[in-house]
């Protein structure tokens, strides 16, 4: 399959469908169509995006032999069905997060994807901001020293009024964890990507700030990030968290603290991550993505602007000063994914987040839910993760550091405090 013969289609017609369609166009992949919850929704989106006619139903999309890759941008409860259908139809899959509603569903998708030999990706998109890749390079090269502490937040305000409604508030559609699954998974994936450390155990406090909300009694409520809709409403009890505080123990002995909220006025998409190493600290925020703060003990702190160091990941795609952001991260991720698609299947160590990484977040979510329920530290149970996938979190991350760091630079090996056997066995696997 050559690059330019690859074609995509999208299931879903909302916020993410638009983002995916735009990024695909920017890398030259034709989008043959979308399918929505109804032919009318599909038609509205195809005319807004200037796409060909929508597919009448998902089965029609799957039956279209011209489609090589399906992008799953439907609500969470449909991810398993849509991704499974695409894999069974022999299509590569790019699935939005969370990969599935439960870790059982996520493990099932992992198994099917693995045995199919098809490309499978999950949109943990923060990995593709140049400054996140630069942070990872600095940690992996030893420039920051041993990682001791990782703190951060993911705060939003688009659900801060009782009139705000979205399908995510219904646990049957969004999942039993909301803030954790919707936004926390991005932060947790990023922390693992930058440090290479895996979460060993967690204790979480989950809280509902708005116990009842005014649910529109209409088709589907407000679209993501949009204001409340006019019309009849029904007061509806809420049973998923608006707020979360999570303490984390990583497998190298380092600690983390994550705070999450979808009810913080003024915070639109405030993902921030700060890492304290034994030699230096790093801080990055998604709302100011061109800057990486570098903290020092004995010299002035620095702010690294993207593009400042030619040949490093921080150089990014566009020349310095031509601000890169959220849409560019999707473009960068799809370049990696579509390299694998063009090659006919995933490389041994993918340089993009895979279904395995989606499953990793699902088992972490299980532990977060259990720890909140029992008010106790809970160990991540990775028994659902097939042995054949066991090290791909590390190997994928290690390779992606090298692959993204063009021209490829060998990352110096180093010993870190609390380093475990799994790292050395990972490198024996060729990672
Ligand atoms: N990676 C990211 O940065 C990011 C950001 C936002 C959302 N997401 C994820 O993207 C997914 C979609 O979220 P969104 O914000 O676009 O939601 P949205 O509500 O804007 O869009 C969902 C779309 O799915 C459509 N849909 C519903 N039922 C369907 C069906 N049976 N068949 C086909 N389409 C159907 C709806 O009509 C709607 O257009 C979610 O899983 C969400 O977690 C990811």
UniProtKB/TrEMBL annotation:
Show where the Gfo/Idh/MocA-like oxidoreductase N-terminal domain sits.
7-120
Q: Which InterPro entries match?
A: Gfo/Idh/MocA-like_OxRdtase_N, Gfo/Idh/MocA_oxidrdct_glycsds, GFO_IDH_MocA-like_dom, NAD(P)-bd_dom_sf
One GO MF term, please? nucleotide binding
Q: Does the keyword Transferase apply?
A: no
What residue spans carry the region label Disordered?
A: 400-431
GFO/IDH/MocA-like oxidoreductase domain mapped to chain residues: 133-283
Oxidoreductase found in the keyword field: yes
Query: Could you tell me which PANTHER family the record lists for this protein?
Result: BCDNA.GH03377
Query: So which residues are the signal peptide here?
Result: none
Protein name per UniProt:
Gfo/Idh/MocA family oxidoreductase
Keywords, A to Z, come to:
Oxidoreductase
The organism's taxonomic lineage, starting at the top: Bacteria, Bacillati, Actinomycetota, Actinomycetes, Mycobacteriales
In its UniProt entry, the species of origin is given as Mycolicibacterium hodleri
One Pfam family per UniProt: GFO_IDH_MocA_C3
